[in-house]
Every structure is written in C-alpha cells, then in structure tokens.
Design a protein that fits this description.
- There is one protein chain.
- The chain is α+β, with helices and mostly antiparallel strands.
- It has a domain at about 295-445: 2-Layer Sandwich (Alpha-Beta Plaits).
- The chain is about 60% helix and about 15% strand.
- The protein has helices at about 5-30, 35-85, 95, 100-110, 140-145, 150-155, 195-285, 295-310, 325-330, 335-350, 375-390, 415-430; strands at about 115-125, 130-135, 160, 170-180, 185-190, 315-320, 355-360, 365-370, 400-405, 435-440, 445.
- The protein is rod-shaped.
C-alpha cells in the first residue's frame, strides 16, 4: 500500500508551471538556456527523493505500529494457545467459548482498548470454516475469507498483519493456533482501530513534504538566480573588455599626447632659440657681438631721460680705430674684421655694470655711461685706450682715438651729445691719434694722452 501525500501532486504542478515560466522568461529576456535542463533535473530529483523519503518515513511508522499490533495479537494468541492445549474439552469451539477463554479475552481487551474485534476461525469436521466471535460484531465467514492474503497465509502457519485502512485506520492481524501435534487447528483474527491513524501518517510526511517544497522552490528560483548571475557576469566581462579596450585607447591617446607635448616642447625650444637668434640679429652687431646702432641709440635715449629726472649725468665715449683703411688696404678685410672683433671683446669685457657698448658704425664704437661724470668717463676711456693698444692681433698693433662728452640735464639731445663726442674724437685724431679728448662747455678741452 502506497502512502502518496496529495501535497506532492501540488508540488509537481507548481514545479511544472514555474519551470515553464522560467523557460519563457529566460528566452524572452535573452538569458542562457543551458541552465534549464539541470534545473529541471534537479527539481525532479528533489521531488522524487521527497516522495521516496516520505513513503519511507510512513512505512517506518506503519511498521512500528504493525509490530506493536502483532505483538499484542501474539500475547493473546499465546494465552489462548496455552489454554487450548491444557483443556480436556474436545467439542467444536468449546476451547474458545468456555468461561476461561472468555475471561482471557475480556482481561486482554481491557488492557488493549485499541482492539475492536476478536474472532476465531476454524474448520469443522465436515471441512467447513466456522467463525467464533469472541468480541465485537459478528462478521460473516465470507467477509473474512475475502481477506484472502491474510487468512490464507495465517492458515498455512504464518503470522500476518494487513496494512491499515486509510479511511478508518483498521488493522487486521491473523495468528495461527496449533494443537498438541503442531498442526493448525484455528486462526485468531484481531481487529485494531486507530482513529488518529491518518493524522499519524500525515505527521510522518509533513516535514518531508515541507522540505521537498522548499528544495524544489530553491532549485527552480535558484536556477533563475544563476541564469541572471551568468547574464550579469557576461555583461561584466563585456564591460571589462570594453574598459580594457578604452584603457588601451586612452593609453594610446596619452602616448600620442605625450609625443605631441614632447614635439611641442622641442618646437618651443627651437622657437625660443630662433627668437633668441632673431633678437640677437635685431639688437646685436653680427661681427663684434655688441649692440647695433639702433639698440645703442635706444639705450642712450632711455638712460638720458631717466638720469635727467634724478639730476644724474650721462656720458658718451666714442672710439674710432686709427688708420683702419690702411689696415684693410695693407692686410685685407679679414685683418680689419679681426681688429674689429678684438676691440669688441675688449669693450665687452671692460664695460662697467649698468653701462652699454655697441658698434656705432664702420670702425666706430660707442659706450654709454649712465650716471658717469666727466672724470669717471675720461678714466674709463683711458683704460679702454690702454687695453686696446695692448691687445695682440695677427696683423699689427691697433690703436684708437677717443672722444668723450657729458651732459648733466636734458639741455642737450642725444644727437648733440654724440656730436660733441665726435668732435672730441676728431680732435684726438688731429692731435696725434691714440688719445682721449673730452668735450667741455662747448670747447675742446685737452685730456691726458
């Protein structure tokens, strides 16, 4: 007899509906379908395992109760068997109907209230079966014989107990009774009734049913969660790949930007160098490296205006190479260029701080001394003359004639100041060359040679 709980049918229907729903959801939402087969198999395995476990639990409970019923039947049968073998009565049924037998049954029934019927079945001398009711309502012999498996095995000498009736919980136990020579002379049939039998079976199954339902739910919706997790991981992998790709692209862009920055930095350096060269070309004399005429004049104008405000003097020293044309004619223009460069180096090295020196034009040079008084300017000019004379060249010794002019206010313009220095210069040339002359108060004052 199988004790299949109806709740397992409900769980099976739920499992099928949920599985169909999961399948539709999976395909509609483009989730992986590989998870469907293992989810179905796991759910089915859980359901089958739950059913088997439930029946096993019921069988274990039933077996325990049947063993208890069979044990009770054995006790009664043992007492009746002993009474029968010690009785001298030989009338049919008298071994069950006498007072002693009835006392045994009544006493035993009081101790076992779950027994609702006690009957004995025996064969009469003419070979027919006779039913002897010891307790309970009288049941026809045909009804008893209809319990073929129970009665037949018991008449063959086997103790038998039937599985319970689910509707009323009745259990039938059949115990064979032997005579002195060991042959079966009758069968003792006991009816046990337990109104709580169905409840006992349901209690035995309830925990298994509940666990089965939980595990089926977990298997189905766990599979749903796994499908979603797989999808999320796939999206994460795609996102990671895109991030890596973007990272590589960003890295390439950064490298490209770095290269461009390096190129821009190099170009800026080249531009700075070019600007420096342009500035040098615009402000410096290409041969001597001194200021050119325009830059020198701008410096003179600025310094004169600044010094006139504070009442400070400004002096100009004008130099000219003696016999420069003769040097070029005799030794060539390369020798003349060498002389110009040598004088330019002396002037650059001898220029006081805050002063400026440049090539005024041709073989003429000019030094501007902001704040330079007459005496200071003459002293500087004399030192320049001496150093130039002492400078060696590959051709011959080079000397210069120098004129100096000083202004103490803006009463003179730049051109006037330069004109006075130029007049003093030519005075030096006419009076022996290689000398310094200062122009003072509109007249040529002789300076020390």
């Amino acid at each position: 007899m199988q004790f299949v709980n109806p709740w397992f049918l409900v769980i099976s229907v739920f499992m099928m509906i949920a599985f169909v729903g999961i399948t539709v959801w999976t395909k509609r939402n483009e989730r992986t379908t590989k998870i469907l087969r293992p989810v179905f198999l796991i759910s089915l395995l859980v359901l089958i395992t739950g059913t088997v476990t439930s029946n096993s639990a019921v069988r274990s409970t039933v077996d325990e109760r049947l063993k208890a019923n069979l044990g009770s039947a054995r006790l009664m049968a043992s007492e009746l068997q002993n009474h029968y073998q010690s009785s001298t009565n030989d009338g049919v049924g008298q071994e069950f109907t006498n007072k002693a037998s009835k006392d045994i049954v009544e006493r035993w029934l009081k101790a076992n209230p779950e027994v609702t019927g006690v009957k004995a079945i025996r064969k009469t001398p003419d070979g027919k079966f006779q039913t002897i009711v010891l307790s309970g309502n009288n049941e026809s012999i045909d009804s008893l014989l209809s319990r073929g498996p129970v009665f037949g095995k018991a008449w063959e000498g086997t103790e038998v107990t039937m599985m319970p009736n689910r509707s009323n919980g009745e259990v039938f136990s059949a115990i064979p009774l032997q005579n002195g020579n060991g042959s079966i002379h009758s069968v003792l049939l006991l009816t046990f009734s337990d109104p709580q039998w169905s409840a006992v079976i349901e209690r035995a199954q309830s925990l298994v049913v509940m666990m089965t339902a939980v595990l089926v739910f977990v298997a189905l919706f766990g599979g749903l969660a796994v499908a979603e997790l797989i999808h999320a991981l796939a999206i994460a992998r795609v996102a990671k790949a895109e991030m890596l790709l973007q990272g590589d692209q960003i890295k390439e862009q950064m490298e490209l930007i770095a290269e461009k920055n390096q190129t821009m930095a190099a170009n800026q350096d080249l531009l700075a160098q070019a600007n420096s060269r342009l500035h040098a070309l615009a402000t410096m004399d290409g041969l001597t490296g001194l200021m050119n005429h325009r830059t020198l004049m701008e410096f003179l104008s600025t310094s004169m205006k600044r010094n006139s405000v504070v009442g400070s003097p400004s002096s100009v020293i004008l130099l000219d190479i003696d016999n420069f044309k003769q040097l070029n004619d005799q030794y060539g223009h390369l020798a003349g260029d060498e002389a110009l460069r040598a004088i330019g180096q002396v002037l650059r090295q001898s220029c006081p701080p805050g002063a400026a020196v440049g090539r005024y034009g041709g073989e003429e040079f000019m030094m501007v001394l902001p704040g330079g008084s007459e005496s200071a300017a003459v002293a500087v000019a004399e030192e320049l003359r001496r150093r130039i004379q002492a400078t060696p060249t590959t051709s011959r010794q080079v000397t210069t004639s120098i004129g100096v002019s000083t202004v103490y206010s803006m009463s003179k313009s730049e051109q006037t100041l330069i004109g006075e220095a130029d007049s003093a210069l030519y005075y030096s040339k006419r009076n022996g060359k290689n000398r310094v002359t200062h122009y003072g108060h509109g007249l040529l004052d002789s300076a020390s040679a």
